[in-house]
Design brief:
The complex is a heterodimer of chains A (398) and B (185). By secondary structure, chain A is an alpha+beta fold. Chain A has four domains: 59 residues, no CATH class; 54 residues; 172 residues, Jelly Rolls (Sandwich); 74 residues, 3-Layer(bab) Sandwich (Phage tail protein beta-alpha-beta fold). Chain A is built from ten helices and 24 strands. Chain A has a six-stranded mixed beta barrel. Chain A has a four-stranded mixed beta sheet with strand order 1-23-24-21, covered by helices on one side. In chain A, strands 20-22 form a two-stranded antiparallel sheet. In chain A, strand 18 and strand 19 form a beta hairpin. With 185 residues, chain B is mainly alpha-helical. Chain B folds into two domains: 101 residues; 64 residues, Orthogonal Bundle (Arc Repressor Mutant, subunit A). The longest helix of chain B has 26 residues. The chains are: A alpha+beta (398), B mainly alpha (185). Chains A and B meet through helix 1, helix 3, helix 4, helix 5 and helix 6 of A and helix 1, helix 2, helix 3, helix 4 and helix 5 of B. Chain B: One of its GO terms (biological process) is DNA-templated transcription initiation. Chain B: Pfam families: Sigma70_r2, Sigma70_r4_2. Chain B: It comes from Zhouia amylolytica.
């Protein structure tokens, strides 16, 4: 990014040079730039009448008005993105900015209402596709790489390479634990997606929809630290000497080598850690109070009070997502639909609050069209469901 | 999205100005790399749509926004080149991609031309001739002889073009952004 910025700055010097308007300092700066390898040739190639003439013809061939219109059309096809942006702003903004937010909100509502003339659809006519395997990788310099199942990418960072094969991003370090500066990467999985990751120590991570994991490309020091937002299942490579630590907001989970699931969505005020194998320690950061979990145990951590509640559970419903299933044991309709909504990238709206607390138990496939799931809910729970634009699911009392 | 601390909506007049200023060069750059104007257009469009899907959506200034767009365009070009290579079933890793340095060079070219283009558009055909002759390697004296004016006139035309460029960029962006985008000038 900085390299690009400095290119933009050098272009200003070149323009000033052509127009005979360089100051003494700028002249020196440009001379230093031209001294670098290949730069003199480059500047010579750029400051060329024919090349400039060709470029002018190309730029005049771009119909910016037309492109602007198609940009607006494209943006309007993605209304859910806009709503997400507004919500995030609401969180970020301070009271001082409230007035501006109001303007933004009014604009947003106008868009919302203008779209309503299109009708609703019944569950039968809707077509909501399940999520797929894709993610965004953010490199330490801020560069963003799009990852998709079918694409094969190899990204090198120092001695570490990250290879993207069949929906899994795999890191490997040629020199084990190279002690040089540690670069951090972030794997970002949007709503309606999932992804798998193999860290440089061999730890496997399954990332659920709307999840972000930040980790060093290579682990150094006495701890293997990663940071989680959202939900992930970890299969940690054993290393007795170097504990693996997962931080989610103000909770820390410390492990030596084990399998467990953490659900830490920002929208919830709890973080749920469920242990499948091995042993883990859960504690609030900067606190000595800790809970130790053995297999088939779970801790629900309240992020506001840092209070922890330990219980024995059947782990399967909590990790079934990674096996391609939705498994719910006596959860409310609201909890169930909020999970499902993340995977199908839809918004769920309850027209009647009374039905939010209907309990639900079931085991459903994750890779089907959403219609089949909604049909089951409609018949089993006596609710009425309407769908708009395959993006909004309205649930009301029958 | 926030630029220089100011919030901008995607369908606002402010963003339209930014779009008008940045879209053509993103488009031309991608077209040049992919050797296809249609693909270049698609990639530039995609980059602008993606810009609004960025989660942090805060840019310290317009240069940061511009740099981010260039990164999006570069990444999209690379995946497009790879896709094309797959169809042709090439095995060579070279040529499928564009090196960071080559891309930076293209940015320098794009940005320089953009500035010269603005400078010329703002002024008389005489300014255009002066710029073109300068790019052909003419010294001020040669330009004066060619255009049948004095050396001082040539110098003045250049200075005026430069000043016009500064003013133009200043006005365009001061209105939008709290900090001056081209504070270098």
């Amino acid at each position: 990014m900085d390299e690009i910025k400095s290119q933009i700055e050098y272009s200003e010097l070149l323009a000033a040079k052509v127009l005979g308007s360089l100051t003494e300092d700028q002249k020196k700066e440009l001379e230093a730039f031209e001294k670098k390898l290949h730069h003199q040739k480059l500047v010579h190639e750029i400051l060329d009448a024919d090349a400039f003439e060709k470029w002018t013809q190309k730029i005049d061939g771009v119909d910016t008005e037309k492109e602007w219109s198609s940009f607006l059309v494209k943006m309007e096809q993605k209304p859910e993105k806009r709503s997400r942006v507004v919500v995030m702003r609401a969180v970020k903004w301070t009271a001082a900015a409230a007035a501006i937010f109001l303007v933004g909100f009014v604009l947003f509502s106008v868009f919302q209402t203008s779209g309503i003339d299109q009708g609703y659809e019944s569950v039968e006519n809707a077509n909501i596709q399940p999520g797929s395997s894709h993610a965004e990788l953010v490199l330490s310099d801020g560069e963003v790489v799009d990852l998709e199942t079918e694409s094969k990418d190899k990204i090198s960072q120092g001695t570490v390479t990250a290879e993207n094969i069949n929906g899994t991003l795999q890191y490997s370090d040629i020199e084990k634990k190279s002690a040089i500066e540690v670069k951090k990467n972030t794997l970002r999985v949007p709503r309606g997606a999932e992804y798998q990751l193999v860290l440089s120590d061999g730890t496997k991570v399954w990332l659920n929809a709307e999840t972000e994991l930040t980790y060093p490309v290579s682990f150094t020091g006495g701890k293997r630290r990663v940071e989680l937002k959202g939900e992930a299942y970890f299969d940690v490579a054993p290393d007795e000497e170097v504990p693996f630590v997962v931080t989610s907001r103000n909770q820390e989970v410390t492990v030596l080598g084990t399998e467990f699931n953490i659900s830490a969505y920002e929208a919830d005020n709890t973080i749920t850690t469920t242990l499948v194998e091995g042993k883990v320690k859960v504690n609030a950061d900067e606190s000595d109070v800790a809970e130790y979990l053995v297999p088939d145990q779970q801790v629900v951590f309240n992020t506001n009070t840092a209070f922890m509640e330990k219980s024995n559970v059947d782990v399967y419903p909590y990790i079934a997502w990674k096996e391609g299933r939705f498994v719910f044991n006596n959860v409310t309709l609201e909890q169930f639909l909020s999970k499902v909504a993340r995977w199908y990238d839809v918004e769920v709206i309850f027209n009647d609050d009374s039905i939010k607390n209907i309990r639900f138990t079931g085991d459903l496939p994750r890779y089907n069209n959403m219609t089949s799931i909604l049909k089951i809910i409609e018949t089993e729970m006596s609710v009425h469901i309407q769908i708009k634009d395959n993006k909004k699911v309205y649930v009301s009392d029958k | 999205m926030k630029v220089s601390g100011k919030t901008i909506q995607y369908n606002s007049a402010e963003f339209k100005t930014i779009f008008e200023h940045l879209f053509p060069s993103m488009c031309v750059l991608a077209s040049r790399i992919l050797k296809s104007e249609d693909k270049g257009k698609d990639i530039a469009q995609e980059a602008f749509v993606k810009l609004w899907r960025k989660d942090t959506e805060e840019f310290t200034d317009q240069k940061a926004l511009q740099a981010y767009l260039y990164v999006l365009v570069k990444n999209a070009c690379i995946s497009e080149l790879r896709k094309e290579a797959k169809h042709k079933s090439t095995i060579l890793e070279e040529g499928l991609t564009i090196s960071q340095q080559a891309f930076l060079n293209e940015i320098l070219r794009e940005e320089t031309y953009k500035l010269l283009h603005i400078a010329i558009k703002e002024l008389s055909p005489q300014a255009e001739n002066v710029v073109k002759l300068t790019l052909q390697g003419y010294q001020n004296q040669d330009i004066a002889n060619e255009l049948n004016v004095t050396v001082n006139t040539v110098k003045t035309v250049k200075k005026r073009a430069y000043k016009a460029l500064r003013t133009k960029l200043g006005n365009q962006f001061i209105a939008i952004l709290l900090t001056n985008f081209f504070d270098f000038f």
